[in-house]
Amino acid sequence: MITANHLSRQFGRNTAVSNVSFSIGDNQVVGLLGPNGAGKTTIMRMLSGYLEPTTGQVTVNGENLGQNAYCIQRQLGYLPENLPVYPDMMVADYLDYVATIKGISREDRSRAVREALIATEMVDRGVDKIATLSRGQKQRVGVAQAVLGRPHFLILDEPTNGLDPHQTAQMRKLLEQLSRRATILLSTHIMQEVEAVCDRVLILRNGQLALDRDLADLHCSDSLVLRTDKAAELQKLLQGLPQIVNVTANLTDSDCHEFVLQLREGCDRNTAAGNISQCVLQAGARLYTLEPRVRHLEEVFQEVMNNGD
Ligand SMILES: Nc1ncnc2c1ncn2[C@@H]1O[C@H](COP(=O)(O)OP(=O)(O)OP(=O)(O)O)[C@@H](O)[C@H]1O
Questions:
Q1: According to the model, what pLDDT value does residue 16 have?
Q2: In ligand 1, which atom is closest to the CA atom of 187?
Q3: Distance, CA of 208 to CA of 206 (rounded, Å)
Q4: In the chain, where are the structural domains located?
Q5: What topology is assigned to 221-293 in CATH?
Q6: CA dist 85 to 31, 49, 89, Å?
Q7: Mutate to test the pocket of ligand 1, among 14, 18, 189 (most ligand atoms within 8 A of CB)
Q8: What is the rounded CA–CA span in Å between residue 142 and residue 80?
Q9: Residue ranges of the chain with pLDDT lower than 50?
Q10: Rounded to whole angstroms, how far apart are CA atoms 167 and 136?
Q11: Distance 43 CA to ligand 1 centre (A)
Q12: Could you give the CA distance from residue 257 to residue 226 in angstroms, rounded to a whole number?
């Protein structure tokens, strides 16, 4: 488990991160979101031990990172925002060099490099100079150095930055595989990425943690969506139901109309669904679909940002 305890970081008079606390349990994949300058990179640098917090602390499996940085950093894989890769080095040599710094023993090093090259699909570029790689391939070298030695914790700052759609899909597959044996915190600006690979999302706003929620909870809303062919009489019938507090109609010129039905807090959804179906029949209409309204991360992100204004 990796824990941030009341982390804050000042740069002069600028507060980049303010009193942020969270814990990430084993094998969780957590997405860190926030607009530019919200403090994502600063948090990741503190979690990986490359930047000291002004106040607060990071613990990894109960051990204080500040007091035992070298040992703990060996269990961490970190992909920084701007990786200082060495353009004149060959990919495999560079990974061997990073493996040495990480303290991977001489006997295990070539296996670890090969594993990292396979995981990032870079085996056939192993003897190429880093300078000759595309931006996306360099990014994969960055991920390869982070996964060297199968670390328990992976901290990845925008891992799909610069990747084409195919490589992005490959990277998501890789993250899924890695999550079976590692705890992952990744930052991104791509909401679909978080929806595709993460169990949980943290949203930062102005250096503060504005939301910490499991994605499954976040997707649940208090509304149902009804699609039907007739609207006129139905709207009144729906409004009269005790389980419904608000009806929003999206009427069209076609024979498919949509109602968003906001349910009363704590009401029984099955009873509500049964009553809604009866209203549809009573109005002589066809029930095309009746389903829970899913809140997407994009919508929640906007709500969180607007709440801060
Ligand atoms: N080394 C530094 N010196 C001074 N200020 C810094 C430094 N690093 C970050 N900051 C400031 O801290 C704040 C948070 O920056 P940070 O890079 O953590 O944001 P971010 O959420 O990662 O942004 P982005 O999405 O643009 O990468 C910004 O106001 C930034 O200017």
A1: 97
A2: 22
A3: 6
A4: 2-218, 221-293
A5: Alpha-Beta Plaits (3.30.70)
A6: 25, 19, 8
A7: 14
A8: 8
A9: none
A10: 8
A11: 10
A12: 8
